[in-house]
Amino acid sequence: MSEPLIRTRSLAKHYSMGDTEVPALRGVSLDIDRGEFVAVMGPSGSGKSTFMNLLGCLDHPSSGEYWLSGQEVSRLSGDELAAVRNRKIGFVFQHFNLLPRTTARDNVALPLLYRGATAAERHDKAMRCLEQVGLGDRHHHQPTQLSGGQQQRVAIARALASDPMLILADEPTGALDSRTSVEIMALLQALNRQGLTVVLVTHEQDVAAYAGRIIHFRDGRVVEDRANAPRNAAGDLTAASPAGAS
Amino acid sequence: MNFLATLRVALRALRVNKLRSALTMLGIIIGVAAVIIMVAVGAGAQARVEEQIRALGSNLIIVFSASATFTGARSGAGSLQTISEDDAYAIGRELEEIQAAAPALRGSGQVVSGNANWSTIFYGITNDYFEAREWTIVEGRPFEPSEIYGAAKVAIIGQTVATNLFGDASPVDQVVRIRKVPLTVIGVLERKGQSLSGQDQDDIVLVPISTARKRVLGSTSLAKSRSVGSISVKVRQGIDVGVAEGKVRELLRQRHRLQPGQDDDFNVRNMAEVLQTQEESSRVMAMLLAAVASVSLVVGGIGIMNIMLVSVTERTREIGLRMAVGARSRDILTQFLVEAVVLSLIGGFAGIALGVGGSLMVGQLAGWRIELSMASVALAVGFAGAVGVFFGFYPARKAASLLPIEALRYE
Ligand SMILES: Nc1ncnc2c1ncn2[C@@H]1O[C@H](COP(=O)(O)OP(=O)(O)OP(=O)(O)O)[C@@H](O)[C@H]1O
Ligand SMILES: [Mg+2]
């Protein structure tokens, strides 16, 4: 396929604070192909999250264009954007954003609720996604009964439940220790190898090292965009614990 | 998102804050119960009035002697009564619209039997009284014509008098004394219950009119006169009561030789009209009660709105997450709306239980007649549901109109 999964042209976003306009993104033109693993880096306030929210169809750009798998999404209505998020995109958040007092299985099934899947379909799919992230045996646990790493894996399972083309992860390891971070990265790498496109934001060089491409932001602009020979997270895990846990 | 799933999500959300949900429902429970109880009480009162209208017959006219009913300019001690027994017979005889015209003389006093005594009202009557008043004798017999005109010492008593003097024993053939006159009880009247003004209609003794005049009331002037206190006139079936009333009035004016322009020296009261006014006012009363109760339902609805608004604020991040994974505005709208309606409907059904129980209890404790109707129950629950939709809509719309990114970032 010649056409990229993500194509942005002069994508810009400014927030109006009273009478001043705060430019958060000042025209980003990027292509990301299917199957890429991209790490977005940059100092705080450089517009990374703003960019991710636009990619995730959570927010409207102030100007510029955005095509997702060939579809111009920058001018879709709210409901159409909801459908795009539901079918094409899986989100992983820094603070997991799981529903409290809700089992892992029901959390994972959440996207399916909004595409009219039957209870049985939701149940099956959620179980398969939980198994995929290695938590098949914890499906009845509530978020408070899971560790941070496990919660983030449930969140990844939830992102997978909608069979997306794209996983967007804004600082997915931001709330995790380094070992758990590597576990999460190993999981994302594995998913990427199965063909999923992954875009993640991180502040840590160590985390970005697992990506195949690193994009640097500064002041709402892309200042560097380079290919990277990715480290193998699974290898790092086995190296760190020769006993080979998990 | 299908409805069953929405319902399940709503129920789970309500279960998370059980106490809060229960307290919110309480407003609706009380509202619905209040509506049901108030409507039951109101309908009961109305039914009682209607029943009395039926019992009285909607075709009864009562003619009172003017001085007997009004203590206006005309009155004075022992003022003469202006209508007579003969007026009654004339009405019955000359007006074909009239089925029966029954003269009555009223008095009150102690009725004594052995050691028992009871203060009551007595009427001197003719047998026409039973027909005019649609009153039957359940035990014993009516008066013989010879008794009516011969001042016989006989009496027919009402249920209350019977129980108070004789308990469960049969009063027939017993002797009672009114103003020292011994009277043999020959009959007992059917039970009539309370009148609209709350009087016990069964607290009564009936004697022949001549007996009342000559023996019991016993004043010499009365003994000689033919005057009576009232005439109960029953209009024939199918005849307009108003027209009949006019005929009666005309006949009496003629008999009393009143000139045109002169006031009536008697008073005619159309009982149906009196009762219909009462029915009207009891209906207004019932509606007023229902309206007051509905106010509490509305207050309950405001409680729901309040809690839903709190809940929307608390769950902003959840809303953001749901939107991020693909919920459309209308999914969020339905979710919160269904939550509000579920709250109010559960409250509604609990309110039915409380309302029905409460109605029965009010009926028991206050001794009021209550009338529970399916319609009022359905109405109350329907109203509760409507309250849920109405008051749930604003918070739900507020939730649905959140922008996904702002909701997600909400602290
Ligand atoms: N809702 C908002 N209203 C106003 N300004 C905003 C809003 N969101 C972001 N900004 C501004 O836009 C700029 C970019 O913010 P953004 O969150 O994209 O930064 P970031 O690169 O993700 O930073 P961090 O690494 O700290 O998460 C910042 O200057 C920020 O103050
Ligand atoms: Mg950020």
The major pleated sheet of chain B works out as: 6 strands, mixed, barrel
Strand order of the largest sheet of chain A: 6-7-8-3-9-10
Beta-strand proportion of chain B: 15-25%
Into which percent range does the helicity of residues of chain B fall? Answer: 55-70%
Number of separate structural domains of chain B: 2
Number of helices of chain A: 8
Let me know the CATH homologous superfamily of chain A: P-loop containing nucleotide triphosphate hydrolases
Oligomer status: heterodimer
Which spans of chain B of ≥5 residues are poorly predicted at pLDDT below 50?
68-79
Basic shape of chain A: globular
**What separation lies between the terminal Cα atoms of chain B?**
27 Å
In whole angstroms, the N-to-C terminal distance of chain A is 36 Å
Strands in their spatial order, largest beta sheet of chain B: 3-4-9-6-8-7
Number of helices of chain B: 15
The ligands bound in this entry are: adenosine-5'-triphosphate, magnesium ion
Largest interface: pair, residues per side: A-B, 26 and 24 residues
Structural class, from secondary structure content of chain B? alpha+beta
Q: Helix coverage percent of residues of chain A?
A: 25-40%
The succession of helices and strands of chain A, N to C, reads: EEEHEEHEHHHEHEHEEH
Rg of chain B, alpha carbons: 33 Å
Integer count of domains of chain A = 1
